[in-house]
Amino acid sequence: MTARLRISVKVLVWAACLSPILYLARGWLIDELTANPIDYLTDTLGESALVLLLASLAMTPIRIVVGVSWPIHFRRLLGLFAFFYVCLHFSMWILVDHFFNWGQMLEDIVKRPYITVGMTALTLLAPLAATSTKAMIRRLGGARWRLLHKLAYVVAGLAVLHFLWLAKAGVRDPYVYAGVLALLLGIRFWDWSRRRMARLRPALAGEPVTPPLGQERAGGRASAPPMLDRSKR
Ligand code: HEM
Questions:
Q1: CB atoms within 10 A of CB 28
Q2: Residue 121 in contact with ligand 1 by CB distance below 6 A
Q3: Which pLDDT belongs to residue 181?
Q4: What letter does residue 210 receive in the DSSP assignment?
Q5: Which residue puts its alpha carbon closest to atom 17 of ligand 1?
């Protein structure tokens, strides 16, 4: 990928990530946020968060299926924007639905399952955002960091469940998101079993087994995540 193309793609990704907030700000300025602006804001922020979360999870499956690795570099940006929109979405609930009434909020979390699930998703997403810096990756070590960031799939599952739980009967969107998540998980699982089989095949044939991908170096240390691994750029 040429430097020029990389910059163009970067600009496009940033524009796509910022478009929901710009669109909402424009709607607010020209007073075009529908007859129920609060619901509209909450829903649009929540849905933008979900789309970006799934987009960040789609980067590795794209590499697996298409064979190009540069989209991986946008995974962190997309994940951080997802967190940004979730925080705004959550702020709407704190400010507008409950206006800092902590007792009422706690009651809401306990009584309404979709709020419980949403809250759990946000709680799990926060450490992922906090550990997304290169310094944190180095501190945790590649293998531990990778393991922690597998939680992103759990967060996405909870977010889809949150949407399924709150959606009115006949609304199709949450099922579409559930389908996308299932597809992404399916591709990861297929890739994992394919690599596992490739590793086991020589052992079954009585040949020496190659170490798992990412642990080829001396001492079996896992390789750095792609964003730190300059050889993959
Ligand atoms: C990863 C975390 C979360 C994601 C991805 C997410 C996503 C969503 C989505 C997609 C919707 C439906 C939008 C629509 O109808 O078009 C929604 C609605 C909503 N979410 Fe979340 N959410 C998350 C966390 C939370 C949290 C932590 C709270 C509050 C504690 C919350 C409260 C709500 C509320 C009140 C609604 C609107 C329900 C309604 O329309 O009646 N969400 N969220």
A1: 12
A2: yes
A3: 98
A4: P
A5: 46
**Single-letter residue type at 204:** L
Q: Per-residue pLDDT tens for 48-73?
A: 999 999 999 999 999 999 999 999 99
- CA-to-CA separations, 6 to 13, 59, 68, 141, in angstroms, rounded: 11, 15, 13, 28
* Binding site membership of 161 for ligand 1 (Cβ less than 6 Å): no
Shortest CA distance to 61 belongs to which of 181, 147, 152, 187? Answer: 187
Going from the Cα of 106 to the center of ligand 1, the distance in angstroms, rounded, reads 16
Ligand 1 touching residue 52 (CB < 6 A)? no
Whether the CB of 119 sits within 6 Å of ligand 1: yes
pLDDT digits (tens, 9 = 90+) for 13-55: 999 999 999 999 999 999 999 999 999 999 999 999 999 999 9
